[in-house]
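note to self — DONT lose this again. spent like an hour looking for the file last time. sequence + predicted structure for the chain T wanted, 49 res
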Amino acid sequence: MSYVSDEIRPKFDTLSIDLKNEILKRDVPLNTIHDLIRVLEDIVAESEN
C-alpha cells in the first residue's frame, strides 16, 4: 500500500488526479521529496520507452 508522508502531502496534492493515481498504484512509500521525485522519474522513463 502506498504511503504519502505529511511532509510531502502538499506537493503530492498539486499533481493531477491521473498522476496521483499512477503513483499510488505503485505501492511505494513516499516519505521524502526524493522518494516522490524518484517515482516521477520512473514514470517518465517508462513513458519514453
